[in-house]
Amino acid sequence: MPISKRNRRAVFWLIVLCLLIVITPRVLTSSFSNQDISISFTEAKELHLDIVKNKQKSKGFAQKKPKKSRFSAPRAKFDPKTYSAPDWEQLGLSHKQAEIVVKFSKRGIRSEDELASIFVIPEQLFRLIKDSIIYSTPKQFEAKEYEKRVQVIVDINSSNQEELEALPGIGPYFAKKIVEYRNQLGGYTSSQQLLEIWNFDNEKFEKIKGQITLSPKLSPLNINTATVEELKNHPYISYAVANSIVKMRAQRQSYTKVSDIKESKIINQELFNKIAPYLECK
After folding, report:
1. What's the fold here for domain 146-213?
2. Each residue's pLDDT tens digit, 152-189
3. Nearest CA-CA partner of 175 in 187, 160, 158
4. Which has the closest alpha carbon to 127: 161, 95, 91, 94?
5. Which residues contact 273 (CB under 8 A, 6 or more apart)?
């Protein structure tokens, strides 16, 4: 079968393409081989020496000695209470910083945490002095506090919050709670009622019981005029009891004595004994 003109042309170009594929890599290889880069031993040695020098130079720069610190360590252990402003200045603090540190350390420093809390002492100086500090022991602090408070006698029915804070173990929180509960009750009838305050435990009570007194100072509620709302606001009187007292008063027109409220079925003798000191009949 004769080959057409079109097929012959296709075969021709296929042969040309195959020749190009075979010849091109060889031509490229021969042209690049004429440009081979060569380096002598001497040049290689000089290049190696340059690299070593540059490394040493960069290493020396990285290990450059830091600037001398303006802070210095104390020569011996010391108690911060005995250090004056000039003493702190010798360690590297400014005059203003030194005065602030003196104020902080007047009562002594109990731990590293307390030392670190003095914000004007920089980290560098802190590291230099922390092991040279003579820290005050908790017992020393307790003894000082006890000396201040041992003579304090506080009337829990008339004292203000500041006076209550002078009692051992009674800070601002419990002093405030003692006053608040006193107002809610209308006064304390027994120091044991302090144990009714949330989180006020026996341990705390034992610390202060020898330093508190109780005056007969109460603000009773008049059962002939008090409303249900006023009665139920008392810590010992529930809504049901308050409602019962007011309803019986309406039926009786008025009470003649406090014990009349015992006619209520929900007020037993135990409850009556508890609430009677806080009630009056006028």
Report:
1. DNA polymerase; domain 1 (1.10.150)
2. 688 999 999 888 988 888 888 999 999 999 999 999 99
3. 160
4. 91
5. none
